[in-house]
Write a structure and sequence with these properties.
Blueprint: H1 2-25, E1 32-34, E2 41-43, H2 44-60, E3 65-68, E4 81-89, H3 91-96, E5 102-109, E6 112-120, E7 125-130, E8 135-137, E9 140-141, E10 154-157, H4 171-180, E11 183-185, H5 190-198, E12 204-208, H6 212-224, E13 228-230, E14 243-247, H7 252-259
Parallel strand pairs: 3-4, 10-11, 10-12
Antiparallel strand pairs: 1-2, 4-5, 5-6, 6-7, 7-8, 8-9, 12-14, 13-14
Helix pairs in contact: 1-2, 5-6
Length: about 260
């Protein structure tokens, strides 16, 4: 639909503008604070990016719902369109000068993922997808990898902010995949991890206790690149991000088996 084209153009513009803020402030002195846990960080750059994104949407799309990580959006009940925004995914990385972070913008239409944009400002890589239209990186169509053997697969994961206090900490699952896959990476930016599955750089990804803004764009980008996303039992991936498993499709059932505690084939 024509409106989707307009929304995609707006999402791309906003992602690049927020990314420019991140690039300008990268490796400068930051005001770093904590949120839910001592390892859950927020900076003034997160807040500046969110203010830009939410402020623009309030002016240009005043009837749309906006769910933003730092809480400044108006998540309006009954809105036809809903924007789900992570203004700076990978805040801990950003705060330490580790170059793995991005802007993530997902848009739902009547509760269904419709488009997604993820922008890495340091590499100037812009990932985008519209439902039914494929996934693209800087205009190049993306396709997931063709790997069929978990033992030759490169996977990614992450750990929740309550990892120090919870028993549901993903450590056992990480250990099993470490013994089963070629290698496992933990880079701290779930939206980029999902895009890397779409681009064929990773063969699979799993993580628990994520949030809607972590996955709203990335899940659609993976699916439009030919991949598969689910919860840990193979059902639809929850909009909440509570359980997210993404793969090239070929490795998906094997990944689900490993997550269930079974031996990989």
């Amino acid at each position: 639909m024509v409106e989707t084209d307009d929304l995609l153009a707006l999402a791309v513009r906003l992602a690049r503008e927020a990314g420019a803020i991140q690039r300008e402030r990268y490796e400068t002195e930051l005001d770093i604070r904590t949120k839910s846990e001592s390892i859950d960080l927020v900076t003034e750059v997160d807040e500046a990016c969110e203010a830009l994104l939410v402020g623009t949407l309030e002016r240009e799309r005043p009837d749309d719902a906006v769910l933003a990580e730092e809480g400044s959006g108006q998540d309006r009940d009954g809105a036809e369109w809903r924007w789900i925004i992570d203004p700076l995914d990978g805040t801990t990385n950003y705060a330490h000068g580790y170059p793995r972070f991005c802007v993530s913008i997902g848009v739902e239409h009547r509760g269904r993922r419709e488009l997604g944009v993820v922008y890495d400002p340091l590499l100037d890589e812009l990932y985008q997808a519209v439902r039914g239209g494929g996934a693209f990186l800087n205009g190049r169509r993306l396709s997931v990898s063709a790997e069929v053997h978990l033992g030759q697969g490169l996977l990614a994961t992450g750990f929740s902010y309550d990892v120090r206090t919870t028993r549901d900490d993903n450590v056992a699952q990480f250990a099993r995949f470490l013994k089963s896959a070629r290698a496992v990476r933990r880079d701290g930016a779930a939206a980029l991890d999902l895009c890397y599955v779409a681009a064929g750089r990773f063969d699979g990804f799993w993580e628990f206790k994520l949030h809607p803004w972590d996955v709203a764009a990335g899940i659609l980008i993976v699916e439009e690149a030919g991949g598969r996303c689910s919860d840990a039992r193979g059902g639809p991936p929850p909009r909440s991000g509570a359980e997210t498993v993404a793969s090239n499709g070929h490795l998906h059932e094997t990944m689900l088996a490993v997550l269930a505690g079974k031996e990989a084939d």
